[in-house]
Amino acid sequence: MGWIIRCRVTGKEVRGSFSEYSTSAGSYRGELLGTLAINTFLLAFEEYYRLHKNETVVFRDNKGAVYTFSKKTKRVPSGMKHADIQQVKRAVEARMKSKLKHKHVYGHQDERSSRRSLSLEAWLNCICDELAKGAVARDAMSTDIEKNIPYSLLNKQRCICVMRNRPPTSPKAYATT
Questions:
Q1: What are the strands of the beta sheet with 55-60, ordered from one edge?
Q2: Residues 155, 156, 157, CA angle at the centre, nearest 5°?
Q3: Chain-centre distance for alpha carbon 23
C-alpha cells in the first residue's frame, strides 16, 4: 500500500508505504489498509497539534474502499470480512474531530495520458501506485522471520516507512492511496 498526505496550504507532504503478508492479503484489503493508515496518521496530526474541525479529502482509486470508508458503522460483527480493519476504522473515527470526505479518482491514468496533463489527484495516485509496488518488492526480498507468525491488526505493531522527498509545488492538498 502506498499513500500520501499533502497540505493544500504549504504543499508539504508525507508519504508512506507498507505491505501485508498474510492469507487475507489482497488488493481490496490493501486499499482498506492504505485508507486506514491515512486516517490513523491524520488522527495523530489532529491530536498532536490539537487541530479540530478540519475538512480533509481522501481520494481512492477503488470505489469499494470509498464506499466502505464513507459509511458509518455502529457495530462491526466479528465474522464480517475485514472485521479487524473495520474495528480499527471505527475506533479511529470515534476519536477524530475532523471531517473526512472520501472521493474516487480513476487509477492508472498515466497509461493514457502524460503525467503533466493529469489532475493533482490522478498524479498523486500514480505516485501511490509506485510506492505500493516498491513496498511489495521490498518486502518480497525481505527475510523477515515475522512473515511466518500469525498476526492481528488490533494488537500487532506495524511499521510505516516514511520517505522524505522534496514535494512538487501546488496550491491544492489531497490525501490519496
A1: 99-104, 55-60, 175-176, 2-6, 13-17, 161-163
A2: 120
A3: 20
Give 114's DSSP letter: -
pLDDT at 24: 79
Specify which residues 57 forms β-bridges with. Answer: 101
Residue 41 and residue 39: Cα distance in Å, rounded? Answer: 5
Please report, for the chain, the start and end positions of each structural domain, with discontinuous segments joined by +.
Answer: 2-176
Q: How confident is the model at residue 127 (pLDDT cuts 50, 70, 90)?
A: very high
Nearest in space to 69 (alpha carbons), one of 40, 26, 107: 40
Cell output for 61: 482509486
Q: What is the model's pLDDT at position 146?
A: 52
Q: What is the pTM of this model?
A: 0.72
In the block, cell 472520501 appears at: 102
pLDDT at 158 over 80: no
CA distances from 34 to 31, 63, 108, 129 (A): 5, 14, 17, 11
Architecture of domain 2-176: 2-Layer Sandwich (3.30)
Strand partners for 14: 5
